[in-house]
Every structure is written in C-alpha cells, then in structure tokens.
Design the sequence.
C-alpha cells in the first residue's frame, strides 16, 4: 500500500540530500514536491497546503543538530505531522457495556457486511468476546445469505428474521435476544445504497434511536479517495459516528482517505481491512501508517502478526529440538504452515524496513509453498525425521511422488540444511530475542 506516495516522498526529500543546512529555498522546494505528492494521493488541497505550511514552519524554526542531516530532519518533522493528521493516538472501540451494541453504516459495496463478520472474529479471537451478528439489510438480494455464510465460517451466530422487512424491529429483537442468551457484543449490519439518499439515512437514524448503540462504525472503501471523505462527512452529519473502518487498504490505494478523514470529520480511523481473509482486519495505528507512507516498513505489525500465529508451547518445543540439533522436515513443514497463516507473503515482506521497495515489482506467488509441501509430504516418516538418509534414489522417488523434478528436491533439501544452520545459530543466542518475542503472548 501507498507505493506511489512513498516514492513521491522519497523524491521530495532527495532535494535536501547532500545539503548542509536547512534554508527557506530548499525547504520550499521540498514542500512543493510533498504538496504535489499529497494532491496526487487525492488529499484535499486545503489540507495538503496546511500540512506543508506547518512542516515548513517547524523546519525553519529548528536549529539543525550537526549529527542530523537536513533530509533526516525533514523526514522526522513530516512523520510527526502525518501522525497528527491521522489522529495521533490509536483509538479503542467502546466495549464498556453488556451487551456492547455496534452499528455498522456505509454505502453498498463498501464491504460493510464482510467487515461486520471480520470485526466479530477479531473480538471473539483477540478480546475473548461472545459476539452476535444481526442481519438488518433486508433489501439487498442475498444479503442475509451472505452474513449467514460468513457467520458459519467464523463460528459466530447470526440473528435473522427472514420475512420481516422492518430493520428497526429486527434490531430491537436482536438486542433482547442477546441479553437473554448472554451475548456480550451485538454487531448490527445495516442496509447500504449505491449512493447517499434520505430514505437510507432516515432508516439507519431510526435504528440508532431505537437501540442506542455504544459504537457506530462507518465503513468506507479506501480506494475511493476524496469520495470516501465526502461520504464520511454526510454520514457523520446524520449519525455522529464514533469511528471509521477503511476497507481495501491492501489494494492500489493512494492514501488520500487515510490522510484526510480525521481532518474533515474529526473522527478517528479505528480499523483497516487489509485483504479478503476473515483475519484481515487490523487496529489502525497512525504512527505505523506514517512509517509505511514514508517507506520505513512496519516491523511492529510484522512481529505482532507472527506472535498471533506462533504458539508459545510449540516455540518451546522447537527450541528444545534446536538445542539438540533435531530440527527435521516435520518442523520445517510446520514453520511453512505457520507463515502461510500470517497472510499475503508480499505484504508481510513489505512490513520489514528496507524491503518494501525491493519486493514491490516482484511477482511473489502465495502458492509458491505448494511444491515445497508436496515434496515434504512425498517423503516417508523416516526421511522427514532424518533428512541425512535421503540419497539419490530416494530423491528420485520423492520427485516422482510430488510431481516435481530432482533439481527442485535438491534445492529444497539444501534450503532445509541452510535453515537448520541459521536456526541453530539463533538458538545459540545470536538472535535469541526475536525467538523469545515470537514465543511470548
């Protein structure tokens, strides 16, 4: 995400590279490029101008330390101002009620129903909540079927009243049902339209008045740029919502919506949708988003993603095996499966500082692990436990069984032994901190 914006920022700061001092001329030139970058990212002109004026004022008002180059200083000031523009702090969702009622609002096609389910899964898995999804979109064909399928997929019940076309009534009954059966979060999926209309606004306003939600979340497609911001303003005027979920942030988004929604409606972005999987919903961190926009990566999100998938008990077992040099192909296969759970490989690599640009134009296939898994699964249990016994005739049999060739089998076996060496080094203390971090919750 934000590849184009990152490139433009990088080009802007190059103006100051090699220059010993901050001057009004070189700052003005840099800020002109930054303003162009923001406008190309679909940021409102006034916001872009105010932003660059503030950065320029701070840069010219600072005494540059000898240890800090002008370009480094400008990156730091821009980073701080980006964080401020997007909301400074990470905003929590309000769950201080039992049940906590969450109302989802947004246009049709914004991903509202899918993100209602994603939010239910996040609250169930990470906050240990017992959520209930409520189907109040009684107009869109197959909307009720969609939320029922998603609910089944994430193992969260869905309250429906098929045949009842009164969303306000359904919402009220759902809240009563939640109280009776001990659900502590109620997530109400409402109807959207292809455009803002008075009827839709009145209906969702009536639902709000009838169930008194503790949290109203506006769901909007980040790829629509300034249209997303304009829609947010219209919904906020009617609902006075509490926060925003920006969807499709993994797509070719220019960044305008993420940068300007807070400034326009003064409501925080609380979550971002980063893919199609039900796990692909993250809490929004302004500082981490600013890091990504400036091409710094996001190592904290990478480690958190790893921590969510790596089991502490499994990590302890693995460490014992490494200490005895017993890491085998069963462990190797297990590590691959853990990595696959973390999400899109290219997105994960782009979180590592310095890697974003390197992998941007690479075609990294998420199915790349399939041949590796096929090769390992074509080994006998004895071969997986003791890779040293795999000779030429065994390699030929493994290649035939996995539908690959000898070269691929040789490549994987070499990769395995290289990995074992590295992991032994890690276990011996050269990078123990990272392993310990993965093992902690």
Sequence:
């Amino acid at each position: 995400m934000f590849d184009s914006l990152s490139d433009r920022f990088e080009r802007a700061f190059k103006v100051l590279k090699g220059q010993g001092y901050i001057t009004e001329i070189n700052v003005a030139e840099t800020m002109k490029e930054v303003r162009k970058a923001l406008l190309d990212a679909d940021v409102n002109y006034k916001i872009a101008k105010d932003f660059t004026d503030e950065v320029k004022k701070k840069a010219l008002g600072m005494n540059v330390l000898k240890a800090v180059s002008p370009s480094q200083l400008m990156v730091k000031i821009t980073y701080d101002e980006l964080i401020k523009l997007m909301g400074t702090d990470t905003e929590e969702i309000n769950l201080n009620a039992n049940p906590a009622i969450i109302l989802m609002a947004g246009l049709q096609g914004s991903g509202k129903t899918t993100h209602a389910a994603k939010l239910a899964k996040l609250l169930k898995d990470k906050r240990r909540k017992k959520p209930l999804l409520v189907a109040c979109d009684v107009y869109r064909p197959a909307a009720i079927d969609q939320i029922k399928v998603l609910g089944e997929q994430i193992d969260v019940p869905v309250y429906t009243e098929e045949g009842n076309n009164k969303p306000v009534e359904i919402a009220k009954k759902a809240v009563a049902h939640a109280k009776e059966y001990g659900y502590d979060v109620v997530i109400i999926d409402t109807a959207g339209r292809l455009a803002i209309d008075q009827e839709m606004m009145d209906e969702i306003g009536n639902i709000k008045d009838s169930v008194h939600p503790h949290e109203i979340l506006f769901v909007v497609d980040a790829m629509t740029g300034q249209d997303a911001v304009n829609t947010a303003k219209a919904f906020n005027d009617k609902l006075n919502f509490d926060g925003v979920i920006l969807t499709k942030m993994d797509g070719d988004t220019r960044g305008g919506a993420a940068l300007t929604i807070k400034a326009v409606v003064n409501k925080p972005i609380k979550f971002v949708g980063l893919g199609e999987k039900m796990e692909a919903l993250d809490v929004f961190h302004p500082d981490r988003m600013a890091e990504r926009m400036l091409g710094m990566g996001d190592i904290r999100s990478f480690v958190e993603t790893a921590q969510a998938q790596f089991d502490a008990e499994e990590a302890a077992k693995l460490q014992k095996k490494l200490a005895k040099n017993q890491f085998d192909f069963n462990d190797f296969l297990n590590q691959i499966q853990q990595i696959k759970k973390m999400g899109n490989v290219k997105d994960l690599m782009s979180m590592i500082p310095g890697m974003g640009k390197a992998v941007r134009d690479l075609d990294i296939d998420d199915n790349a692990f399939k041949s590796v898994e096929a090769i390992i699964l074509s080994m006998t249990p004895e071969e997986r436990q003791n890779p040293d016994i795999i000779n030429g005739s065994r390699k030929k049999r493994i290649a035939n069984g996995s539908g690959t060739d000898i070269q691929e089998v040789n490549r994987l076996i070499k990769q395995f032994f290289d990995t074992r060496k590295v992991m032994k080094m890690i276990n011996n203390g050269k990078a123990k901190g990272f392993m310990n971090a993965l093992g902690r919750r």
